[in-house]
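protien #1 (seq + structre)
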Amino acid sequence: MAKTEDLPYFLRPSGLVLIVGLLTALKIFAAANAHLVEDEAYYRIWGLFPALSYYDHPPMIGWWISAGQAVFGDTVLAVRAVVVFSGLIGSLALWRSATILFDRRTAGWAVLFLNTSLLIGIGGILATPDAPSVVFWGLTFWTLAELSVSRNPNWWLLVGLMAGFGLLSKYSLLFLGAGIVLWLIWVPEARRWWSTWQLWAGEPLRFFAFRRCSTGTTSMSG
């Protein structure tokens, strides 16, 4: 593993904090001054009326917007505030995942590429269901990385919780769940987890979150 002092400054934790902080400041400025796109204007209404679910999407983006409105009022920045700051959480989760799976050099480059990509640089300020979906996808991956390295089965509880929040963001997180199941079946070393109670305890956390969301959607469509 590369030592911190062997890395160029921009790949060290302090350099990454500075770079990501500056980019986040630019995102905050853009988020506060750029007009809402059509989808965001629609989701703004969700924030004004928080619910367990909505007609065409799970509720997480509505909850995020509602949290922003509680702090910043009914403003453009409020709609995007949690989305912007969630990028910091995603960057930290990515850095930690890459550090324990590879090394700090790889982690530094991963964080830089993430934050300087057009998808995150521009799309990272838009308040759409993709924003919390990406964050919770990354957090689920982080918990799986911790599980794989530490071999501590208690991480399954957090895996289930993060995946459940992901399903409250966008139903496409079901594909991540399918990938986890395939990993548990295909990789011989991973099959040991089938016999741990934490794996099965984590599943109800994910299912409960999804069930509450789907129940809300069904009642609205009916």
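ok now protien #2
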Amino acid sequence: MKIYKNLMNNTSTHWQWYRKYFQMNVFRYFMLWFAIVPLFAVLLAENGNSIKLGNSPSSLIINLELPFSWELLWIASILFLIAWIIYLFCCPTFIRKYPTFTDYQNHDHDPRWIIWESALVINNTKLFQKFFERLSTKNLLEIESKKEIQLNEPIVDDYQTLIYFEKDNQLYSLGMPIYKGDVQDLNLTKISEKAIFWEIFGRFASSKTFSRFLILILIFASLILVAINIGQNIFSGFKYIFGY
């Protein structure tokens, strides 16, 4: 259990890193093999291990035997496909939409928008505690006096978009952009927006531990089966070259 916890808490197993596995050429290869294998299986079922082109004694015979186990490779493709489907359904939208802060900036959001994204974390009981602790440490929260106010939902006014929430009977607010008096502090706003982004990112990236673990196991199992196939290929090559 401790090994599992340490593994899934490691940033290398967080959601943002799974994205690259499903963008590699190997993914297209697996999907191609997944589609081809049923056709290959039909040919084997109807013709055995060879196909004879023509009816004359000199007709060309095509050997359908492969130097590796196509069944194992198809299972590897299935495992990889299942991992991809889990990724599509379970990877947080925030991570898929904004894999880096540069991607977030490319959407040209107003600084106020980060408060709407923050609301998703504030209203998630599993993610809120650490989010609160990190924002408090970075002095991004304002302590407010008790008052009748809408909680846990962004409020838009002339100056800022804010969200109010309670923690241990204390009222806090998080707002953007940042003002010094009546003047917007552009530099502090930019720094704070980036800091809040990475805290949201970190909470979502480390979420849904079991789903991440399942994807990791499926990809690892798929790679093991591919490695076995590569070994079969190498062995067949040596067997042919050295004639044994």
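The mean pLDDT is 82.
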